[in-house]
Design a protein that fits this description.
single chain; 210 residues; mainly alpha; Arc Repressor Mutant, subunit A; 2 domains; Homeodomain-like_sf; HTH_TetR
Length: 210
């Protein structure tokens, strides 16, 4: 009688141990992901602080890790090159931006929606100036178009487009990027309302039905 009970008890303990191990593994993965995200955020902030006094081309990995307060080996655990690091930042910003942009084409109030997008970029002006008008400009534009082709049609099914879905998505994003690039190159400040108006007039309204 005691043998089977002991076996059942061991089996139950084995099941609990397996479940606990899986739970701990999941917690460990989340913890590592969170640490990695914090490290990347520190590297990004370090890069942005350096841009105040230097150009992206002149900044080295050693400069970035020193400004971020991390080791060079930590940088290389995440990125093989400085270019890969900048592209990672660009891809994250593009994904966030696309989430803000596509609702423009289905919004009942495109003026307000354009203002929201311009405000988003304005709050990250230094970073976006680097991405759109610096060394990552070519990557940014190609990635924007790629994501527009992938994500746009699925998000614009109900939008009152005057263009085919894939063309409307690509056109809207490309024109928006060109307006933002122009804005960020200006030496004199341009009011957000004026930039939003340009995005609405040049990028959004042409893609919508009259």
């Amino acid at each position: 009688m005691t043998g089977p009970n002991r076996d059942n008890s061991n089996a139950e303990q084995g099941q609990v141990t397996t479940a606990d191990r899986a739970r701990l593994n999941a917690i460990g993965l989340r913890s590592r992901d969170a640490r990695a995200r914090r490290t990347i955020d520190r590297l990004r902030d370090g890069l942005l602080s350096l841009i105040e006094t230097s150009t992206l081309e002149a900044i080295t990995i050693d400069d970035i890790v020193e400004a971020a307060g991390v080791s060079r080996s930590t940088f290389y655990r995440h990125f093989a090159t400085k270019e890969a690091f900048v592209e990672n930042i660009a891809e994250t910003e593009i994904q966030n931006f696309v989430g803000h942009t596509f609702p423009l084409l289905s919004s009942h109030d495109s003026s307000a929606a354009c203002m929201a997008v311009v405000t988003y970029v304005g709050e990250r002006r230094k970073l976006w100036s680097i991405l759109l008008n610096g060394g990552a400009a070519g990557f940014m534009r190609s990635q924007f178009i790629r994501l527009a082709a992938q994500i746009g049609p699925g998000q614009l099914d109900d939008a009152p487009l005057a263009l085919p879905l894939d063309l409307g998505a690509a056109f809207g994003v490309a024109a928006t990027v060109e307006v933002l690039s122009w804005w960020l190159r200006q030496d004199k400040p341009v009011p957000l309302e004026d930039v939003a108006g340009l995005v609405n007039r040049l990028a959004v309204r042409p893609a919508l039905d009259p």
